[in-house]
Amino acid sequence: MAKQIQAIRGMNDILPTQSPVWQKLESVLRDAVAAFGYSEIRTPIVESTDLFKRSIGEVTDIVEKEMYTFEDRNGDSLTLRPEGTASTVRAGNEHGLLYNQEQRLWYTGPMFRHERPQKGRYRQFHQFGVEVYGISTADIDAEVLMLSNMLWQKLGLTEHVTLEINTLGDSAERAAYRDALIAFLEQFKDKLDEDGQRRMYTNPLRVLDTKNPEVQALLAGAPSLMDYLGEESRTHFSTLCELLDAVGIQYRVNPRLVRGLDYYNRTVFEWVTDSLGAQGTVLAGGRYDGLVGQLGGKDTPAVGFAMGLERIVLLLETLELAKDVPNAVDVYVTAMGDSCVPQAFAIANELRQALPGVRIMTHCGGGNFKKQIKRADKTGAALALIIGETELAEGKVAVKPLRNDNEQQLVSRELLAETIKALI
Ligand code: ATP
Ligand code: MG
């Protein structure tokens, strides 16, 4: 036998038994963004490598070691997108959506990072995100958090996630803090892990984001960015906190929260869960007022977040909130003999027109009554229709309930749609 070809490591199939929970999640996302008046943007999966290098930052996990970068046939360096923000800004600049305008956008789709695959961490994964442009005040930061909060409500996850927020200040404030942090880290230079030592001069804030508990312990006495904030940044942050209080969203201020990408300023946040082990961040984002300018546009304030869909699906499964896999079929149409197949198709099509939303499958592949009813049963359909010569001669169809003991009945074609509607 020929050797089977396997999927690429870390890239998952979503099988028919799993797709219902994905569809449920996707419909919750769509409803939520619609409820807030956001518009969808779709961008290509492949972009110029420079786009990500310039936006995410050279000294970040993503750019240092996770990007799927390759040369195309023209010798251009392309990268499978590792996240959605850079592409959204690129598209916004390219099509003049950002300058002097407000945009409230959302996207969803696959992202690619060459990480070590493990539970909740894959090489192709899916994100849903929102990005808002043109508003600098903290009310919009609160709004995107309200939108994310609505997702948890609709998914039944409110009790399983908590919000952590922080502020990174503006670039001057961060520069002052950076110096203080480097001075602090220098005391522990030899005790830092490899990542910490490498980052301490290039990107010291990222050292705070470490997942290594020993390094975390060393950081207990690190200076706090809050102490380096000016009036304006402090007010921005306190306004956000007041708005979150006003709408009843609970949060914890976490002064260690910095986020792994370079483009954030002021507000940063993460929704985390302790039900997924180490991969606990399910949604993350913040303000990135500098990025539009950095990518060649006019300076435009921006805020957004991205949510990892695999982790939400895992959470729903772990909490057993995704148990019921609905069947795909309501009515299964059988044909007793090849001569009845055209009529069976015609009747099925009439019913699809007459009963929008009712899922009707026609039997294909022949076989006797027993075989066809067995198939019907396997689909989980509520009803089987039996189309046979004798019944057709009388203008009738037999309707056989499959999920209860009720008798099969002969129904005229005129009354068929109505009868089915009453029975399912
Ligand atoms: P982490 O610290 O877990 O590596 P990150 O900071 O790299 O996360 P972001 O770039 O902010 O993550 O992406 C937002 C969200 O996308 C994450 O919170 C997570 O839910 C999800 N995510 C990121 N990388 C992966 C991955 N490799 N597999 C599955 N989901 C992911
Ligand atoms: Mg990461």
TrEMBL record:
Its EC number is 6.1.1.21. This is Histidine--tRNA ligase. It catalyses: tRNA(His) + L-histidine + ATP = L-histidyl-tRNA(His) + AMP + diphosphate + H(+). Keywords: Aminoacyl-tRNA synthetase, ATP-binding, Cytoplasm, Ligase, Nucleotide-binding, Protein biosynthesis. It is found in: Cytoplasm. One of its GO terms (molecular function) is histidine-tRNA ligase activity. It is an enzyme of class 6 (ligase). Belongs to the class-II aminoacyl-tRNA synthetase family. HAMAP family: His_tRNA_synth. Residues 1-326 form the Aminoacyl-transfer RNA synthetases class-II family profile domain. InterPro entries: aa-tRNA-synth_II, aa-tRNA-synth_II/BPL/LPL, Anticodon-bd, Anticodon-bd_dom_sf, His-tRNA-ligase, HisRS-like_core, HisRS/HisZ, HisRS_anticodon. Homodimer. The keyword Transmembrane helix does not apply. It holds the Pfam family tRNA-synt_His. The gene is hisS. Its main location: cytoplasm.
